[in-house]
Specification:
Elements lengths: L7 E10 L7 E10 L3 E8 L13 E7 L13
Antiparallel strand pairs: 1-2, 2-3, 3-4
GO cellular component, one term: endoplasmic reticulum membrane
Main location: membrane
Subcellular location: Membrane
Length: about 80
């Protein structure tokens, strides 16, 4: 669909830094969904029994939308 986010989808599990300036890492699932009008980014931490981030829920999901014009103005059917 023109408004959906399923044109291209990718997921990966990775160990990655979570906070700027902090060397501690989290085990996370990272997802990207790309559509014609937006991209959706997901970061979800895998639960750990003993960790610096214990008790903190890390479940980030953000949609970034955009608009564009196509072609040159003044050309085509009126």
């Amino acid at each position: 669909s023109n408004f959906g986010q399923e044109w291209e989808v990718g997921y990966i599990k990775s160990k990655t830094p979570y906070r700027a300036g902090d060397s501690l890492e989290i085990d996370a699932a990272i997802g990207v969904k790309i559509g014609l009008r937006s991209v959706n980014i997901t970061l979800r931490a895998e639960p750990e029994k003993e960790s610096y981030f214990m008790g903190e829920t890390i479940d980030y999901n953000e949609r970034f939308s955009w608009e564009w014009d196509q072609g040159r103005l003044g050309f085509g059917p009126n």
